[in-house]
Anoctamin dimerisation domain-containing protein (Talaromyces rugulosus), 1440 residues
Amino acid sequence: MTFSSFNEEPQGNYDADYVIRYSFGASDREGSIEQLNKLLQTLAGAGFLTEIRPGDKTTLLVFIRAPEQSLHRATHTSRVRDWLYGLRNTQPDGETSPGPQTDAERLRAINYMLTAPVEEGGANITPKHGEWKNVDSIFPLHDDKTNQAWMRDWSKKTLLTREDLDQIRDKFGEKIGFYFAFLQSYFRFLLFPALFGFSSWLILGYYSPIYAVVNCIWCVVFVEYWKRQEIDLGIRWQVRGVSVLSSKNRHFQPESEIRDEDTGEMLQVFPWTRRLQIQLLQIPFAVVSILALGAVIATCFAIEIFISEVYNGPLKGYLVFIPTILLSSLLPIASTLLTKVATKLTELENYETKEDHDVAFIQKMLVINFITSYLAIFLTAFVYVPFAGAIVPYLDVFRVTVRPFVSQEDEKTINHVDFKIDPARLRKQVIYFAVTAQIVNTCMETVVPFVMRKLAIKYKEYSEEKANGNDKSTPVYDDHPDEVAFLKKVRNEAELPEYDVTNDLREMVIQFGYLSLFSTVWPLVPVSFLFNNWLELRSDFFKICKEFKRPVPERADTIGPWLDTLGLLAWVGSITSSALVYMFSNEGLGPDGNPTDIRGWMLMVTIFFAEHIYLAVRYVVKATISKIETPSIRQERTQKILQRKSYLGTLSVPQTKPDIGDKTVEITHASLEEDARAHTLQEAHPSDQFWGRQKNWSESLHIGTTIIKAYQGPEAKKQQ
Amino acid sequence: MTFSSFNEEPQGNYDADYVIRYSFGASDREGSIEQLNKLLQTLAGAGFLTEIRPGDKTTLLVFIRAPEQSLHRATHTSRVRDWLYGLRNTQPDGETSPGPQTDAERLRAINYMLTAPVEEGGANITPKHGEWKNVDSIFPLHDDKTNQAWMRDWSKKTLLTREDLDQIRDKFGEKIGFYFAFLQSYFRFLLFPALFGFSSWLILGYYSPIYAVVNCIWCVVFVEYWKRQEIDLGIRWQVRGVSVLSSKNRHFQPESEIRDEDTGEMLQVFPWTRRLQIQLLQIPFAVVSILALGAVIATCFAIEIFISEVYNGPLKGYLVFIPTILLSSLLPIASTLLTKVATKLTELENYETKEDHDVAFIQKMLVINFITSYLAIFLTAFVYVPFAGAIVPYLDVFRVTVRPFVSQEDEKTINHVDFKIDPARLRKQVIYFAVTAQIVNTCMETVVPFVMRKLAIKYKEYSEEKANGNDKSTPVYDDHPDEVAFLKKVRNEAELPEYDVTNDLREMVIQFGYLSLFSTVWPLVPVSFLFNNWLELRSDFFKICKEFKRPVPERADTIGPWLDTLGLLAWVGSITSSALVYMFSNEGLGPDGNPTDIRGWMLMVTIFFAEHIYLAVRYVVKATISKIETPSIRQERTQKILQRKSYLGTLSVPQTKPDIGDKTVEITHASLEEDARAHTLQEAHPSDQFWGRQKNWSESLHIGTTIIKAYQGPEAKKQQ
């Protein structure tokens, strides 16, 4: 079987493990060659095979292949490390052949060999960092054949199996495996609320308290189930507790270096008290974010209401787009600025590990994400509907927004006497976020970049052809005919951006938020999400395979800070749902469109009870789910029991069954008495006498019997 | 140095490890002797030395001593088990001499040898259970000398040191060690609120919002600090995670026995789903408890108000005691009944381990404890004060309670026109619970039983003397003169009840509750508790030493379910404190004693914000405290690092530094080519050609240099 017998796609990878994209700037030719020399020496020193091919005009492609021998050693070391850190229960044996390896483990081990610091046994090649400025990126190659087969397979399935998830993990590592497992669990769990939501929409209508309660309970069960699932998967994939094996944050700047007296290690120290001080900056950051984004959103919201519901002058049909235009231009600017601040803040906090750094950044971004995602609906539900009557008169200040477009005379005709609260506004908004925005999002994420890339490639080819004098017959690069297709694929992949699973997770968590917070408004929300997520799983996989470099497999035992976010959203959901139900359950509005009969204290009491019942239910659900023993957990338990049993078996105390006048006992007594005599030579030990009175157990029995008979005698006589 | 040179107290223990109190009933003399025979054989078979002395009229005292040899083996086995279960980081070495032992470890190991099931290497002696009906109790003897020395020492100290706590743990085991450590931490933490409360009482007065906020924060910090402290102590005492080594619940009744296919063990199974169903009974139990106890307390409360504040007929001075008498007679009855139900329920839930059983029972009792402790104050604060005006007219029904004592004519004079809410009632009640009840409690707990015991002993001696014909010169028992004092002490201790640390912990947790829930009412609460707890620590120790059998050392890594209770109380404290402050901060009452200006929605909003700010603060405090590295945690980390380092050191990959034409690289290439040739014999491998193009890294460098020069050449020229 030869690879060349395949068509252009799917393309084999010629056993190349990694490709280094080495860029040589035009300015420093000698320096580039110098560094290439060093790179190749380092790679050879670490035992890698290398091949060089041209990339594009300013880059080389260095293909790397790890020989079996050193790969085995690296894998073994990695597994021993796992065992020492408690990730594996059994000590791995056999350095020469460490047993079956997954694709992901192999790539991870090689990546460790390439990038880990020298003192930890790596080659310390750090792309774009330190002495490796010209190393643009290090990436593995996509396994197109498998990817295509999976995509075909999944497009015919409703649910992925456990084995499918294992395969994803085997190819792309646990971190991405966890994302797909989450997506899959979420999708499966959505079946119930989708069904219930649909029935509820048919029978109960909007703002049904029953739907709200069921939805809240569903959210809790899902979150707690997923936590359990994480443990299960963590054990199944042998990554439970992997966060202890954190990788160093390359940007960490220690305040001082201290020699640890006990371990003899040089510790780079940055005092946690100082970090805490910097972390306190998060509070003003959160306040500023809320104010800035809140101001933008609230203003656009107010303008929209003014134009759509108060203003009735000319050009209204066009003017209604003003707020949308404002929002879609101002919000990204504000978000980008705040993201920069968040990045800067996280850098200042100066974390020692990459993992801590990422978590801290995600936490900061959460505030921004929440506001941009949910604030608009919050404003409609809890400001616009209850207080519109009071606020709308003040909206006249937004008259300035229409002034540029309307003549002075026309402006005078603006009046707002016949303002009415639009009770359907809230629902329209929720539908927008639950349906329209999801579809738009999927397109923006998958389809648009794909088309853009295709166009970019076409353009590049065109311009290169032009540069080469429109000679279509000769290929652009002087490649060996066998390798043309392969090198085309590699050049293609080298151009792609790097994948970060965080963004996809965020998207799903935000989506869960709409469900938990606002789905009482429109019970079809889960139905929409169900369809969306079937597609999402597939389109995300397509995206990873086609629009990103193959990610370097990373390990994880959780979806990270998103887990807490899910819990938080479910919790807040209990508050918003109860408030929405109370306020709107009889469509909430009086005849004039004002919600007259909402009583403040009743609303607060409703929220208070809903929230605390939620918390109690959560406690119960947690306790119940913790009792479920998943297959992996069971298997691990069994394994541990067997291990301990076999070890303790070698130690078990031989149980001596004494006959009368048992020898061991006598020997013990004899030795005691000898001890006692030996002691007497030095000093009298008072307890020796005490323990010498009854020579062995049968003497004790004799004394005991005597006592029993003596004491019981008279009493027994009395009874007669 | 001989023990006999000491006075009667403190008394040495003649190296006796345990004493078995063996009771022989009057009815079955032969059976008693038979069982004694078996007992002594079993003990001898397990390698113990025994001595028998008479106890009182119906009991024998069997003294047990474990020879060094078997004790060493038992200790070693126990330590290996700890290591296998992850309690120890290092594998214990040396079966012959397992290294230094604490008193507690020795006693625990011997207890295990005595009571563990045969299949786990014990002698399976189960007091009062199964075949050992006549074995009344197995208990170690108090080390009076040390106990007295400690009591003297501590009475002069304000704070116990870390070493003192270690000593308690070494003598009494980790479970009691944890109680004293908690008491000590709590006492130390009380210093701040006592000081702040006192200043606040002087300057800010009652119901100060500032005090409330500080108090809430203090509660959170204390609870979170203690959680951290538990981890620290757990590591220091090598008990972290000890709960996995749970001991079997002897009353567990499996539904079926299943052979575990994987481990080959016979598993006794009781399905968790069935247990869950029984656990659901907790809900009606809690409801019934609340209703029953609530009804008793509320009724007595109402009668009290009626008599003290409405009734103004004759005999008022005496009648006010009616509710107190009612309460102190009805409440114990109701509590006892409910406790019985709780015991029954817990038994029905049929837990597999003793630990689970205890936790489940404590959780059930919590409801009862909470109601009896806090409901009265709750009623005053949240029912009496806001609603008394509306309720009092209905209290006339309690006229019946005075009727038996008052003539019909007098009864007519009863009127309740001039009823006024007593704003000081709440404070009086809090003062009662914070000061009076605490003092009474300490007395009831320590002084009264001590006096009662002394009297009982005197009475017993008196009656025995009488039975022996008033002959004071001859001793009651026919003891060896050397042993008279010792046996007197042992007979004394055999009579004492068994100590359960749960009750003392409950007392402290309930006390913490008064502080967190109601101390805004009277900021001197922490001052009172500070003094009380200094005494409490000492009197509890006195109690353990003098009024209870020496407890068998048990291990624990936490104070158990009380920890969650502390968290819950701190949480509820944020709600009650904010509500109290809002309602009473300007003494809360209008001129007529009615709190007229309390607005429901404002109250609810206050509570809502207070609670959520509390939760946010808790989150921050938790995060901050988790960053503090305590000495033990640091030490453990260091130990683990050293261990891993030493192991990984043996595996580290030798780093080959290549010179030009490096040999290892060439060898690798050569071997690859050989491989390639070998493959060619079978089938052509397409990647061989690819990897064969550049023979080694210097060839790669050559190609790379050529490409760089070729591509860069024209561009460089352009730039010039």
